[in-house]
Amino acid sequence: MKTYDKIKTLDELELIISELKKNGKAVVLCHGVFDLLHPGHIKHFEAAKNEGDILVVTLTQDQYVGKGPGRPVFNQRLRAETMAEIECVDYVAINQWPTATETLKKLKPDVYAKGSDYADRSQDLTGEIHNEEEAVKEGGGRIHFTDEISFSSTELLNVHFSVYHREANEFLKNFRKSYSVDRIISMMKDLKNLKVLVVGDPIIDEYHYCHPMGKAWKETVITTRYINRESFAGGVLATANHIAGFCDRVDLVACLGNENTQEEFIRDRLKPNITPKFFYRDDAPTVTKRRYVDPAFLSKMFEVCFLNTRTPPPEVTEEVCQYLSGVCADYDLVLASDFGNGFIGSEIVEVLCQKSKFLAVNTQTNSANTGFNLITKYPKAQYVCIDEPEIRLALSDKYGSLEDMMIKIAGRMECDRITVTRGHNGSLGYEPDQGFVEVPVLSKEIVDRIGAGDAYLAITSACVAAGYPMDMVGFVGNAVGALAVRIVCNRDSVEPVPLYKFITALLK
To answer: Could you tell me the CA-to-CA distances from 203 to 4, 235, 306, 316, 489 in Å, in that order?
Structure first.
């Protein structure tokens, strides 16, 4: 059979396999990314073929390759064509779904062949091997683990291909000497026992997708054609959703506006393990940021904000302070995600600083609060996570040494640990024992920056509260950031399994 003729759609394969089985042929299926073919793959395919008569290989679609930015190195078309060149492979198809489970139900092979590294179910990060085994058994087949020589495609790519940029490669080379994949993932899984309270401003992010048409004929204005809209749970809601993927108990304190609470939308988009405590103010809507976006490159053209940046009425603030005074000490981590939209005033700041056992803080500047929502409004915190422009603004120092500024903030806020995020320049962490720890960005692939800082804040705060060293915190934070900038706004959270798979790819 010619190479091109081996490549089929799943629908075509379903009919072909059905006929083959009617004719008494045993069909074996292998599934994977197969980004870089090596001798271990060939041995695996040959051993799999020995379990039947016909060997079918299905490939993970590019969009579902969960090994982080930069992967796959070779796109699905090239991977399929390369696979079809292998003599023992009879048919090749590109999978439609993120995992092989639905494919196994559709194709019903007699044998599903996996490598020996999957035989130990505890080492499967996704937990999908159980679902795949059930699916193949439902179709009358069995699972088989080949026991051939094996290599890691990811390790080979890391060593011999420039998957990551020079600074990242150098950092990872040194980082691997101190940390293994198993150690990092074990530390991340241990975060589940932290009790977390997240406090801050809820924001509804709206993307109104529009196609620019050009300047209006008679007015000095750019006209656009409306396409559709999408709404996201942003601000403290996004922060809570990110951390809730890693910590089993997450409680949320936020203030909604009675002019348009959007409470049903908010509750519907919070993860099930988040317990919210909402307060309400009559003089404002729930903060909504409506952005008009060109969908081609997610370019933001214009923004309209619905908000009241004044602090809530005194009776609301008093109610919040009384509640926080009674509960803050119950948590391992209190995380203040302060967007400066009016909710967290000086009274709430005082309670958070006095009553929390461990307080992590981020403050953000926006067009409505420039110069009025500085990190220095907090007299103390155990962890500060802030970007470089914010810390420079807080200290009125545009060009000075970033390290000097971090030490000043640490002293002023009685804060032992600080992270400054620096966009494409990575992050800089500080703690007295390790000193300064610089971590480069781990990917330069960007879809949308909005929400990435919330993901970084959420997960690094949990790591710092757990007592993890700052080099590990910076590595995990930048891995989280690399995944977050590939998510449109706050459409999804950074979840443990994709993060663990990316960490595995980075450290092999």
So the answer is: 51, 5, 10, 19, 12
